Amino acid sequence: MNHFLDILNKRKTLTSAYIFIGVAIAFLNTYSASYLQKVLDGFGYGTLSAKVILIYGAILISTCILNYIDEYPNNKLSNGIYLDFKLKVMRKISTIDYSNYQTLGTGSLIQQVENGASSGKSIIFDFYFQMIREHIPSVIFSLIFIAAIDKTIMIYILIGYILVFIVTKVVSDGTNTVM
Question: Where in the cell is it found (predicted)?
Fold first, then answer.
């Protein structure tokens, strides 16, 4: 865990921007779905105004702009985290005994470095960042917008989320003990 924090501390600003942009995109995606309901209701009842259409259009355009801006920190962090893990492993490998190096072989050693760097990047970037910037905010924002419509339904959905989490945890723990 210490290695993960060292790598993330190197790129604090970029990491913060990446998470903030992701949360903003999750909010706008959820809000656009909620606002689409206003557009459809206004159209159905014949009360649709230009203001509602303009706000909905601004939400959609903002989402597109943020998705475009998100590509820079996405690629920079993904490649940077991978490179930082490779450099950490290379520093560690430089301290191994030469006889151990000879038994492993250069190809095997390089493959282990690549696999380790790829795994570290996947853990941080593909798992933790996705949870923090996409999945958790999407669930929270969805529950907030559902609560604005009907609190009872939101409570049932929240209970469903909790049950799915518990079942997934139990099943994954059971799978780990079997293997």
Answer: Cell membrane
